[in-house]
Write a structure and sequence with these properties.
Layout (H helix, E strand, L loop, with lengths): L3 E8 L5 H14 L6 E8 L6 E8 L2 H5 L5 H11 L7 E5 L10
Length: about 100
């Protein structure tokens, strides 16, 4: 099965960056409970305040399908979700070439 990547854009209040970044760190810690999740990384946009990006890589579509189902991840995602000022923009893709990733 092909690996699945997900790229999400999160819009937040720039004045709550410390709270947002703590929530992002909590979701990354909670991601440890997901076996099929290979990469789960949060990034702060360098050109637009209050914008964050997630890059996620899953072993396959089944692993993506169970993302967020564990208790720790549900709690962390709920806390992060309360800090968003708009619904996230989510793009799902299949990686075709990469340096540093085993495809």
């Amino acid at each position: 099965m092909a690996k699945v990547s997900l790229i999400a854009k999160l819009q937040t209040d720039p004045e709550k960056s410390e709270e947002v970044e703590a929530a992002l760190a909590a979701t990354c810690s909670a991601a440890e409970e997901e076996g099929g999740l290979e990469i789960y990384s949060a990034h702060k946009d360098s050109g637009e305040e209050g914008i964050y990006w997630f890059f996620e890589l899953y072993t396959d579509g089944d692993a993506l399908g169970v993302h967020g189902q564990g208790d720790g991840m549900k709690a962390a995602m709920s806390a992060l979700g309360s800090l968003l000022t708009a619904p996230p923009t989510i793009n799902i893709a299949s990686p075709v070439a990469a340096k540093g990733l085993q495809l």
